[in-house]
């Protein structure tokens, strides 16, 4: 089986869907001739023509607004917002239009579109190339929100997203594009080819939206994570020899509550990890759900390890990033909580 | 050395407010029939003056004059008049129904009836409109069921939108009418996207975008213009300039420097300005733009100059912010009266027939209202189902919504 980086897996998902379905169109800033600043759409224009993959003006409002109109026509647009940090001008089109079109028209019109955007920090991108705005999407009814953590998942979930009949936000952790980054920024980069999940089948396959994956089984505590933090939490557990069960949510909405509750019922202890800022972050929703559904199994408080409630800084990037040491410290604190 | 004085901010104000007589003198209606009709394949820069002129066909006597007059059958013109009269009668009934508490809200199109009804007749039934909340004339001229329209307004058990949308926010895909949004301007760029899709698929259908003068200040307008121009999208871009955005006069969205149509110039989009109270002129200009779009010549921007004769909505009282008689003194007149005058002058209509037609239309609207009310109103009788609150958020209801629906007992 070939190994792929996450970039190659995403590109492959595009190519497969464009070949299978003439209604799939791909556009965004720099995605046409050049193939995107992260190269996720490289070669698509050459393979499928300028009518199927093209550059867009620098207008996120226009990219998403036009995609909503195309979807209403009957196409399946898959558009790229160059950085998640740039999506705010499109927020009205996402929240008031794409997300609500099916509901407000009672199914007369729908918006089957995918909005891809690189998310997260760790590339010295400063406050405008590092944000993790997933909670701004999970708060919106009508959207599905996906955050893959491996090339295998990225391909299978992107194909599922393009085939889905509802609008999907597809957040790509940019620090995972080229390798399974575990938060040790001072160590050499590990390429995807050394990771099992870089084995990506050729051709079409689909992963179900709304299913979490148990990445590491354990009995001492449950870690709920997604995207880059799955690898960070795994490194923390391994390095500190902690018997943690690590759950990769993969989809935030709809959420796989069953996998979460089954794990917390087993461990009685839950740590939520995300890179986004803490207050009103998706971790707050996870903590609330865990206490609602698992209260009598819990032996410790639910803790969160997150980005600080500050803008994403440039020089202090690694003070901001919730790396393996912070995650391990929280794990230890939970395990040392008197029961 | 230049003199330096403190800077002063310019905040535009309309000529008249309620304490003053209408001051519409600043708006001069030019004579009908004087603006040339350019070749279909003209370039934007060839017709720059048309963004400042005003294309008019009906003159003060009711004659159709000039190169945009076209040729009409008596049937087609009477149909146009009937559509406008139906919009006016429908608005009156629904306005009253709101005052009677049968629904929460309503928005009339009084004074603007010619625009939507004429545009609808100048394009094809399978083209797609992306309307605002004041284009009920599109549905009426497309032959959409009055009963269904009223049921939508009453949010009753037969509301096609299952009670979820504000009154007047219709959706009727089969009649080429995109779901109306309350977030202003969003549909303008969506229409361009729909048109791009039609071009990508090698279709022959075009899109028609609609926006009000005030909402052209939204970024969606700018995005739509860029996309329409860049991809030469087969779309007609309509700006309905009815002078007022609730209490904000049109000068607040553009200043005094240019017309709304002139915004097309910066994008290389051919731009026309038309008398929006002239059914024939609106139809002719739209047919011209539609042919351009269908011939793959790209977008056309049209500013329809009109006047919002009624309140913005049932929640609004224009007496609080504009001069009392401004509507009646509007220099472009009443679109229904003007077409009626033209038909009479042609010998195709009479005052008696007009009175008779008005009575017939009123009876038709009333019958539709009665039937609609038999399916309930917002406050009495059968209503939209509470259970429908949870459907259609997604195609398939996810677990968390199933749980919430159970929690709600629906």
Provide an overview of this structure:
The complex is a heterodimer of chains A (339) and B (410). Chain A has 339 residues and is of the alpha/beta class. Chain A folds into two domains: 6-198, Thiamin diphosphate (ThDP)-binding fold, Pyr/PP domains (Rossmann fold, 3-Layer(aba) Sandwich), CATH 3.40.50.970; 213-335, Rossmann fold, CATH 3.40.50.920. Chain A is 34% helix and 17% strand. In chain A, the strands form two sheets. Chain A has a seven-stranded mixed beta sheet, sandwiched between helices. Chain A has a five-stranded mixed beta sheet with strand order 7-9-8-11-12, with helices on both faces. Chain A is globular and about 60 Å long. The model of chain A has no long low-confidence stretch (mean pLDDT 97). Chain B has 410 residues and is of the alpha/beta class. Chain B has a single domain, classed as Thiamin diphosphate (ThDP)-binding fold, Pyr/PP domains (Rossmann fold). Chain B has eleven helices and seven strands. Chain B has helices spanning 74-99, 113-122, 136-141, 146-154, 186-200, 219-230, 251-254, 279-294, 335-346, 351-373, 399-408; strands at 128-130, 207-212, 235-241, 244-245, 248-249, 271-275, 300-305. In chain B, the strands form two sheets. In chain B, strands 1-2-3-7-6 form a five-stranded parallel beta sheet, with helices on both faces. In chain B, strands 4-5 form a two-stranded antiparallel ribbon. In chain B, helix 2 packs parallel to helix 8 (279-294) and helix 5 (186-200) runs parallel beside helix 6 (219-230). The radius of gyration of chain B is 22 Å and the shape is globular. In chain B, 51% of the residues are buried. Chains A and B meet through helix 3, helix 4 and helix 5 of A and helix 5 and helix 6 of B.
